[in-house]
Amino acid sequence: MVADRRSDQAARVSRPHEAADKAREASSLAAAQAVAREHGVACDEAVLIAAGSNVLVHLKPAPVVARVMTGTAVLHDDPEQWLAREVAVGAFLAERTDLAVPPTDLLPPGPYEQDGLWMTMWKFVRHDEQAPPPEPGELGSSLRGLHAALADFPGALAPLSEIRDWLERLLAELHPSPVLTQRDIDWLRLELDALTPAVFESSLSAQALHGDASMSNLLRTDRGLVWNDLEDVCAGPVAWDIAGLVASARARGQNARFVEELLAGYGGPGVEGLEAFLEAHALYDVVWQAFEARRRPRAMERAAASLALLRDRRAG
């Protein structure tokens, strides 16, 4: 009965936020349709694909997906520049590999600003959401192939230290709570400072990166794995992406053997000395989830759990 009562309370608390989420999704869909129609793209069957940090809209019947910024817009002073960088990297990859979702060619891919929302347009890629997780060697090999294609990107990208700047800004906006105290926030800030030299200002060789290389940003298609969501493209050590993929595998319950095979599948420089990068990803998860809790209260539970795990690893 206690569990039932707690569930009922959570449902009551979340309803206002669910209503806000629905309104945000409706606004995103309408804005994406408006842009598409302005460019002569029929999209009367537009449907929501996903709504997490941002909103993805399939502009059916056209094979076009709009990526509409909602949550991550707060990270950037100049969303247009940031999204233009994402599109440039996507177009570069489309000419060299089929390992990443390309920008659409049915209309200019953007960036666009419509009704206060920024967005970009991408090719719809059919994928199997029910497929089992990829084999670890396939994961590592796919990331290595993506890095090989990205290595020659000629454009200017923000350094990995920009992510540190995001985290510093988000930490400054967190407010103490019973779940995340001021002492916790201060501890996270000290951890960020401690990790900066080894990760965000690393002397390791830098190249263009995916920036958010997690299993959730991979599509299972008929032609194999395809990387999605290039929003966080940046320049830094490949260890950042490798650690991100390892962290996401662990978060899905994969064991040490799986991680070993993933790293073997990558099979190149960057797979050694990942610990600081793994800790940085763990810290990122705590800070982002705590920040997201302002609009998604249950995200704070994940932040608290991730903080406990991070502290345990540091104590060990």
Task: Walk me through the structure.
The chain has 316 residues and is of the alpha+beta class. The protein folds into two domains: 13-123, Phosphorylase Kinase, domain 1 (2-Layer Sandwich); 136-315, Aminoglycoside phosphotransferase (APH), C-terminal lobe (Aminoglycoside 3'-phosphotransferase, Chain: A, domain 2, Alpha-Beta Complex), CATH 3.90.1200.10. Helix content is 51%, strand content 13%. It has helices spanning 2-38, 79-94, 136-150, 161-173, 182-200, 238-251, 256-266, 275-292, 299-315, and strands at 47-51, 54-58, 64-69, 112-114, 117-123, 207-209, 218-221, 224-227, 234-236. Helix 4 runs antiparallel to helix 5 (182-200) and helix 8 (275-292) runs antiparallel to helix 9. The two termini are 37 Å apart.
Question: Gist?
Answer:
The protein is of the alpha+beta class. The chain is built from 9 helices and 9 strands.
Instruction: Count structural domains.
Output: 2
Helix and strand string, N-terminal first? HEEEHEEHHHEEEEHHHH
Radius of gyration: 20 Å
**How many β-strand runs?**
9
CATH topology of the largest domain: Aminoglycoside 3'-phosphotransferase, Chain: A, domain 2
Protein topology:
Layout: H1 2-38, E1 47-51, E2 54-58, E3 64-69, H2 79-94, E4 112-114, E5 117-123, H3 136-150, H4 161-173, H5 182-200, E6 207-209, E7 218-221, E8 224-227, E9 234-236, H6 238-251, H7 256-266, H8 275-292, H9 299-315
Antiparallel strand pairs: 1-2, 2-3, 3-5, 4-5, 6-9, 7-8
Helix pairs in contact: 3-6, 3-7, 4-5, 4-8, 5-8, 6-7, 6-8, 8-9
